Amino acid sequence: MTTGQRIEGKLNVAFAPDFIEVVNESHMHSVPANSETHFKVTLVTEKFAGLRLVRRHQDVYKVLDDELKSGVHALALHTYTPDEWQGRAPDSPQCRGGSKKQP
User: Fold this and answer.
1) Torsion of CA 92, 40, 23, 28, to 10 degrees
2) What are the angstrom distances between the C-alpha of 66 and each of 10, 19, 61, 70, 72?
3) Taking the C-alpha atoms of 51, 41, 43 and 81 in order, what is their torsion angle to the nearest 10 degrees?
4) Domains (ranges, CATH) in the chain?
5) From residue 45, how far is each of 55, 60, 61 by CA, in Å?
6) Checking CA distances to 84, which of 10, 17, 31, 50 falls within 20 to 30 Å?
7) Do 18 and 38 meet the contact criterion of CB atoms below 8 Å apart?
């Protein structure tokens, strides 16, 4: 099972989302080929109703604690209630650090 699959499974169990998308964006960063270190997570669930953005992110971090301690370096979190969801999360910017830095 890949790291992305583990992330998706844990979030499905914890949040029963209306929509979930977990994208491995490691290839966009200065990491070895086939890395699983950078993920974009879009999560739409009624469980976020009444919660501020910081609390939503804290709740996701709590569920993914093991992954964050064992190799996941970055999570781009896009957390919505069904009423907030517009059908698409914003695109991630290209990495500007390390060996991919442009002059």
Assistant:
1) 50
2) 11, 23, 9, 6, 9
3) 50
4) 3-93 (3.30.300.90)
5) 14, 12, 16
6) 10
7) no
* Placement of tokens 């910017």 in the chain: 93
**58 φ, ψ (degrees, to nearest 5):** -60, -40
- The predicted model scores a pTM of 0.83
- Per-chain mean pLDDT for the chain: 86
Q: At what angle do helices 53-63 and 3-15 cross, to 10 degrees?
A: 120
Tokens of 52: 């501020």
Distance CA 67, CA 81 (A): 24
Q: Which two tokens stand for residue 82?
A: 């069904």
Helix intervals (H) in 1-103: 3-15, 53-63, 65-69
Q: How far apart are CA 38 and CA 63, in angstroms?
A: 17
